[in-house]
Write a structure and sequence with these properties.
The protein has 125 residues and is mainly beta. 0% of the residues lie in helices and 47% in strands. It has no helices and eleven strands. It has strands at 2-5, 8-11, 16-22, 31-37, 44-49, 56-58, 66-71, 76-81, 90-97, 114-115, 119-124. The strands form two sheets. Strands 2, 4, 5, 6, 9, 10 and 11 form a seven-stranded mixed beta sheet that branches. Strands 1-3-8-7 form a four-stranded antiparallel beta sheet, with no helix packed on it. The radius of gyration is 13 Å and the shape is globular.
């Protein structure tokens, strides 16, 4: 089970940190990802991180501004979002999958096995 939190309303240029808490004995072995979906748009890959944190991928639209990390002792994955823009407004969801994947498959939502409920991020201009 995945529980995302940390969303809210922020002004452009501001920062937010999202958290995704995972439950289960093997949660720390899963590859984790963040996706987002804005109204009327397709779901978009944001970032992924493997079980050890040694391999991370970031979507082109957030590269240099968003950072994914994890704390396996807490079974929690984070998404630090800086320099937020109005176009970052979306529902952000965390996901988990077995296996490491690669830079292509990790960007595809249906390769993930488990999903959280999503948290709304709204960036005002």
């Amino acid at each position: 089970q995945l529980q995302a939190s940390g969303g809210g309303l922020v002004q452009a240029g501001g920062s937010l940190r999202l958290s995704c808490a995972a439950s289960g004995r093997t949660a720390s072995t899963y590859t984790m990802g963040w996706f987002r979906q804005a109204p009327g748009k397709e779901r978009e890959f944001v970032a992924s991180i493997n079980w050890s944190g040694s391999t991370r991928y970031t979507g082109d639209s957030v590269k240099g501004r968003f950072t994914i990390s994890r704390d396996n002792a807490k079974n929690t994955v984070y998404l630090q979002m800086n320099s937020l823009k109005p176009e970052d407004t979306a529902v952000y969801s965390c996901a988990a999958r077995r296996g490491a994947g690669n830079q292509y498959t990790l960007r595809v939502a249906n390769t993930y096995d488990h999903w959280g409920q999503g948290t709304q991020v709204t960036v005002s201009s």
